[in-house]
Amino acid sequence: MITDNGIEIFTALQDLVHPQRTALLVYDMQVGIIPQIKEGAEILSKVSSLLQATRRAGIRTIFTRHMSLPPELMGSFQYRMAMAWQGKQNPAEISSPFLRDSQAFQLSPELQPLPSEAIFDKLSMSAFEGTPLQFTLRDCGIRSLLLVGIALEIGIEPTCRQAADLGIIPILIRDACGAGNAEAANHCVASLQHMGDTIVTDLATISALVSAIPVPGTSDSR
Known about the structure:
By secondary structure, this protein is α/β, with parallel strands linked by helices. It has seven helices and eight strands, in the order E-E-H-E-H-E-H-E-H-E-H-E-H-E-H. Keywords: Hydrolase.
């Protein structure tokens, strides 16, 4: 970290990955989404491992879930998106796979949130749109956001971009983010790296930094 004009400028991961400055966003790790990608089980295992480490370190955690509306509440955009994703030309043929009370909508049993953690449900791709995420992070003084989950090319990339636009540093843990289309995901990562406001890293690097954080309540905790 360097300082100029009284402003702290975070230049290294070890300065950002700290309970006072970062939070973890687990994006759409739902029962009906994880099996849709080939590496779903692997991503679930990695996210679970990181979650255990961040919990020990006292890092705040927020989960998102993608929600479908019943057709009676769908407007033009919702119909267009459902038709595109489901390959339908007739809007009467679409289904709502992630209705509020459906099994597909639920988070994976391996990732059940603690009472101290939040779940934000959304219709949009960015985790910020239509949710209290921005308010929550700013109110807690969070400067950066660790991102893991599914799917990188669908919702994680726009979440990174909106975080950066809001002045929150996105930290994309690349190998803990699944994708339905690997080529599209690689293009997204290349674009984020080109822009320069997202830090792209890997699970081993973040896990090492998180493991070095003293456990809250111990004598050497910061």
